[in-house]
Write a structure and sequence with these properties.
two-stranded antiparallel ribbon, 5 helices
Length: about 120
Amino acid sequence: MRFNFESGVPIYLQVARQIEDAVLSGAFPEETQVPSTTEISVTYQINPATVLKGMSLLTDQGILYKKRGVGMFVARGGAEKILHQRKKDFYDGYIIRLLEEAQKLHLSKEDVVRMIEEGQTDE
């Protein structure tokens, strides 16, 4: 996990995003335990209340759940929920703006697709 204390993004949102990233990468598979609030706060020198706020956000979204006396775990279907939300955020945050700008520039769908394809590299 990496946190940017200088960015305008609140730390609790960075905590949530880092856990989401770990779920998506497979580092925290569904039904497995995630690091505790204390572990994260001590390791990264973050206020435990801030870490808890990020984890609570994920709990409210159904991505994590708490086993009393044991810890926090990735919920079944948690990765799918993250993917669904991120795809929606991508569409709302990038695609809509791209389409609006393409319309202003009188670009056709083919023009936009060609520009995207030209930007890809073969690896």
